[in-house]
Amino acid sequence: MAINWFKYSAPSAFYGLAGKLAPWFAWSSAILFALGLYISFFVAPTDAQQSEAYRIMFIHVPVSILSMFIYLVMAGYAALGLVFNTRLSSMMATALAPTGALFTFIALWTGALWGKPMWGAWWVWDARLTSELILLFLYIGFIALHASIDDPRRADRAAALLGIVGAVNVPIIYFSVKWWNTLHQGSTIKLTGTSMHVAMQQALLLMMLACWCYAVAVTLTRVRSIILERERGTQWVAELEEIK
Amino acid sequence: MSEFFAMNGYAFYIWGSYGLALAIFVIETALVRHKRKITLQQLRLMRDAGEEESV
Question: What is the model's pTM?
Fold first, then answer.
């Protein structure tokens, strides 16, 4: 089966595709959250050192990883838009930014609520925490810069530059726990294996997939509105069933 | 049951984490759906205004 993927680089074609896909991602997310939360709270055993407090991990780790991943995807789309002048790529970058920023905020918040009972401090200026805070500022900067320029194509280009330069921060966050002596713990899951209980691994994986599906569902829904806004005045938008 | 919600003394931290995450997911979902509604409404208004002009 040959699918012409380039077809979907046209906003008009992607609008329809996104509309079909979004509900599937939304429902998958709901089911995965239900399963993931069940294992997180009822199956995964109590941690020997951190007691029940470690259960914050099942939301903290997925949103933190995704906050970095979404940034890279956003910067990637922004770069595509900048280089190939494809309208849809820039719209996708704009649609991803708010979700990425919110994930970063949840990562910082849940981290603070974990840090207080475990370290005795809501916040420390440790390399991992500081670089994640910078990630939040990068997202906010991207959104604010885009919003401050009236001409959408110019806004795309300016925000893309900021986004691409800011991508340097992502490996810094990721490797900070290795490069510097941080209070934040290193990864428990390594390429060489893990000492983590299997139920904890399952819960983490399910919560990760749930958060990913959620992010895809909201981004697709958001990009559809952005497409309509920016393509208004075109024939295909005027002929859409939903505005009849 | 109450033992479960007490989370061995970590209730505030755990439910504070999951509570905020849930609140953000619910609010963001509501916002993107609202935005879609508003965008479609605006398009309808624009089209109606355009039709009046062309008559």
Answer: 0.94
